[in-house]
Amino acid sequence: MAKISIIIPTMKGREELLKKLKSTLRPEFEMIVVDDENLLLAAKRNKGAAQARGEYLVFIDDDNYLAANAIVQMYQDFNPEIGVMGMVACYHDKPKIVADGGSLRWMTSGFTWGRNTNCRIYEIEKQFYEVSEVANAFMIRRDVFDLMGGFDEKNFPIDLDEADLCRRVKNAGYRVVVNPNAVCYHKSQTYSHMPDFRRPMNAYFMGRNRILYQKKHLSGIKLFVYFTLFFPVFVLSYWASLIYRRKPWMIVHFTKGVIDGIQSRFQNQYQKG
After folding, report:
1. Residue-range domain boundaries for the chain
2. Chain centroid to CA 23: how far?
3. CA quadruple 117, 87, 195, 260: dihedral sign
4. Sign of torsion, CA 233 236 241 247?
5. Residue-by-residue DSSP string for the chain
6. Are 101 and 114 in contact (CB under 8 A)?
7. 8 within 8 A of 31, measured Cβ to Cβ
8. What is the pTM assigned to this prediction?
9. Among 184, 242, 258, 271, which has the minimal tally of Cβ within 10 Å of its Cβ?
């Protein structure tokens, strides 16, 4: 089996979660834990990748742990047409329910919808399927990662860094897929169509990065259509959702992100959340 490097960005307070994740990794894997508190997620991932020696890189967030042989299954199912392969993530407290099965994105609108989200894992066909992007836990060939230049940590320091990487991988002619035979368990809240944020940093970067993503990957008439038709829907729907969830203070951070996305700026106050 080719050399596989596991890259785990982490932070203080996640020691128990990280310990559980480590316990599910095979000893022959190269494991790189990046806990630099001065870096955000994409920069941590790039730092880990720079240290890695594997032919395949696996990025796993530290609030996950793995089913047996999940990484081996992905490696065995990889083929030269695939650039990125994601795992199916189930809820850690509801291990038969899918939390994240990859996402599809309508590029002009910026809207996304999850494949198999909140389905039962045994209802999914056991063959990998196409998606626009993956997150959370995924494998990428090292040569493809290097060809892409890694994660765009300048524009997407956290949130949409995986989506941007997957878009560039697809633009280069490779497939982005999810493998239902490779499962991880994610310590997360139940996914909902009603947006919510745990921290001001997440609200800020969602507002900022969604716009930067559209500006980076759309041009001409498609970008005009986005700002004319879909940008107002994006902003108003998040405002309405945050009011519904009784988190009006998050509107301030989200709106700051929207303004900075339009102006392609970044506010340092969100560097550490």
Report:
1. 4-186, 200-270
2. 23
3. negative
4. positive
5. ---EEEEEE--TT-HHHHHHHHHTS-TTSEEEEE--TTS-HHHHHHHHHHH---SEEEEE-TTEEE-TTHHHHHHHH--TTEEEEEEEEEETTEEEEEEE--EEEETTTTEEEESSTT-BGGGS-SS-EE-SB--SEEEEEHHHHHHHTS--TTT-SSSSHHHHHHHHHHHTT-EEEEEEEEEEEE--PPP-SS---SSHHHHHHHHHHHHHHHHHH--HHHHHHIIIIIHHHHHHHHHHHHHHTT-HHHHHHHHHHHHHHHHT---GGGTT-
6. yes
7. yes
8. 0.94
9. 271
Distance CA 190, CA 188 (A): 7
pLDDT digits (tens, 9 = 90+) for 203-238: 999 999 999 999 999 999 999 999 999 999 999 999
CA distance 202 to 255: 12
pLDDT tens-digit map of 148-172: 999 999 999 999 999 999 999 999 9
> 41-51, pLDDT tens digit by residue?
999 999 999 99
Q: 4-186 has which fold?
A: Spore Coat Polysaccharide Biosynthesis Protein SpsA; Chain A (3.90.550)
Distance CA 65, CA 60 (A): 9
Distance CA 267, CA 56 (A): 34
